[in-house]
Design brief:
This protein is mostly helical. Helix content is 75%, strand content 3%. A two-stranded antiparallel ribbon has the order 1-2. InterPro entries: Na/ntran_symport (IPR000175), SNS_sf (IPR037272).
């Protein structure tokens, strides 16, 4: 139970989830594009949801996630289980387990930045933005499928 409390409080806590949700919202709404995502939702459900969702995906949710994440860091206190106070090394282990999943995102970002050729603007264009939109990709896929089946 003692090990479970450490892992529950650090590795699967709000820290990791808020961190991952923040980067997910940023990648979908800013890198992929909120309008492309909005078009994809329409393709899936058959109609456009309220435009309010675009604002939530791009602004509200990332701001709330990073705000709560920072608040949790500021308000952090060492955990206790009943009357037992964990030793310092168990908190280090807990933070290590939390950071093992959280640091994958910035670590991959740094690795990708260092291994992409070009100047800053070229790297941003190659790494962050997708040139094709959903409609263009769908047309390309339909043309390839038609060529494959001998229709064209």
């Amino acid at each position: 139970m003692y090990v479970f409390q450490i892992l529950d409080s650090y590795a699967v806590s709000g820290f990791c989830l808020l961190f991952l949700i923040f980067f997910e919202c940023i990648s979908v709404s800013w890198a992929f594009g909120v309008n492309r995502f909005y078009d994809g939702i329409k393709d899936m459900i058959g109609y456009y949801p309220l435009a309010w969702w675009k604002f939530c995906w791009a602004i509200t949710t990332p701001c709330i996630c990073i705000g709560v994440f920072i608040f949790n860091l500021v308000q952090w206190t060492p955990i206790k289980y009943l009357d037992y106070e964990y030793p310092w090394w168990s908190h280090v282990f807990g933070w290590f387990t939390a950071l093992s999943s959280m640091l994958c995102i910035p670590g991959y970002m740094i690795w990708l930045w260092m291994n992409t050729e070009g100047n800053r603007s070229t790297k941003i264009r190659l790494i962050v933005r997708i040139d094709d939109d959903v409609k263009t990709l769908r047309q390309k896929m339909q043309q390839e499928a038609q060529k494959k089946h001998g229709i064209i």
